[in-house]
From TrEMBL:
Ranges for domain Carboxyltransferase: 26-301
SUPFAM superfamilies: Cyclophilin-like (SSF50891)
Keywords carried by this UniProt record: ATP-binding, Hydrolase, Nucleotide-binding
PANTHER family assigned: 5-OXOPROLINASE SUBUNIT C
Taxonomic lineage of the native organism: Bacteria, Pseudomonadati, Pseudomonadota, Betaproteobacteria, Neisseriales
Species of provenance: Deefgea chitinilytica
Record's protein name: 5-oxoprolinase/urea amidolyase family protein
């Protein structure tokens, strides 16, 4: 029997996510997928899964799951002080559960999202090439909605033998997000360009999986501009008429009409997905060469972790 679990308590918001519908923008369908793609990939990597296998994204903890069969599982992302039948578990670890055991995830002290992966990934239907949940369109995952108490999730692989427990060192956290200049960067006043980088921004309570709304001193455009809609992506920074930036996340629309003043580098997308209301953010402008070097360093680190994990399986 393949492993699986039943949702006892779904917490603030829990959804099934993979790495999203990367080819669906041509149809106007948002990418969706994990708000922290690095942590999802790490949870899968710990089990020997493909990096884009579907897992449960738990936002702000407070969730409980009961295993319906003996199951290998892994946790990554925000540390929710996880307990299995009362036994504390390390974050970023691979564990073995027996049928009937209860996994409890408390609200994290830091970070917003925790990823729970099962061996082989979670078995929900593919929709437009992905198993991820797009809540705004009621698409993918479990009936296109957030998980509810009583939902049963099955693993795609049988884990009758069981893997040894294993934990890895979490990726390093820094409160500064690296941003490349966007196509309308030059329309900002010199003062606004400086303020964007020097100011400490606060995450608004109105933030969600679509984007982080930022609070601080308003940014002014030196050159007013009226724009047609243009393509936007996970990590795009838009500047609406309010003068307060919005940093788009995984569920963002595919096009937008606000000026684009920046684009988060790919290596820092995962950090953006871990911010929550009232957290503070600073931005550092970098060029494309530094963005490529940062992504290459992250990919090399992932390959190193993968070699360690493969040697333990």
């Amino acid at each position: 029997m393949n492993g699986g679990l039943v949702v006892i308590r779904a917490g603030v918001q829990s959804t099934v996510q993979d790495l999203g519908r990367r080819q669906a923008a041509q149809w106007g369908v948002p990418q969706a997928g994990a708000a922290d793609p690095l942590s999802l990939a790490l949870a899968n990597l710990l089990l020997g899964n493909a990096p884009d296998a579907a897992a449960v994204e738990v936002t702000l903890g407070g969730a409980q799951f009961r295993f319906v069969a003996a199951t290998d599982f892994a946790l990554a992302g925000a540390d929710c002080a996880a307990h299995l039948d009362g036994k504390p578990l390390l974050p970023y670890s691979r564990q073995r559960a027996q049928a009937g055991q209860l996994l409890q995830l408390s609200p994290p002290a830091h970070g917003a999202r925790t990823y729970l992966a099962l061996l082989g990934g979670i078995d929900v239907p593919l929709v437009l090439g992905s198993r991820s949940t797009l809540l705004a369109a009621q698409l993918g995952g479990v009936a296109g909605r957030a998980l509810q108490a009583g939902d049963v999730l099955h693993a795609k692989a049988n884990s009758t033998i069981g893997l040894p427990s294993l934990a890895i060192v979490p990726p390093s956290w820094r409160p500064v997000l690296r941003l490349m200049r966007g196509p309308q960067w030059g329309n900002l006043s010199t003062e606004a360009q400086s303020r964007l980088q020097k100011q400490t921004w606060q995450v608004s309570h109105q933030s969600d999986r679509m984007g982080l709304k930022l609070l601080g001193d308003k940014l002014q455009m030196a050159i007013p501009i009226e724009m047609a809609s243009q393509a936007v992506f996970f990590g795009t920074m838009q500047l609406p008429p309010s003068g307060l930036p919005i940093l788009l996340l995984a569920d963002a629309q595919t096009t937008g009409g606000y000026p684009i003043v920046g684009q988060l580098i790919q290596a820092d997308l995962w950090r953006a997905g871990q911010y929550r209301a009232n957290d503070q953010i600073q931005f550092q402008i970098v060029d494309a060469d530094k963005a490529v070097l940062a992504l290459r360093a992250q990919q090399n680190w992932l390959r190193k972790i993968q070699r360690i994990v493969c040697s333990s399986i």
